[in-house]
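One such given next:

>
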Amino acid sequence: MLYPISLNLESRMAQLSNSEKIEILIDQIGRMTESITELRMTVESGFTELKAASERQERNIDRLVGIVETLIQERRSS
């Protein structure tokens, strides 16, 4: 079932020349390309932040393991 909006759009599109339709498509492709680029940049930024957080956690774990090992050695030597 077609809705009034799509009928209105279809009638408007039918009135356009081929070159006008091509211009509309070019504009839409340009907007879509910009959106994809922004999405890719957001994803890349998210992965960069995730990697940095992971590296911080790794350093914290290494530090905590070192502390625990020191405490165990001190307890054994007492």
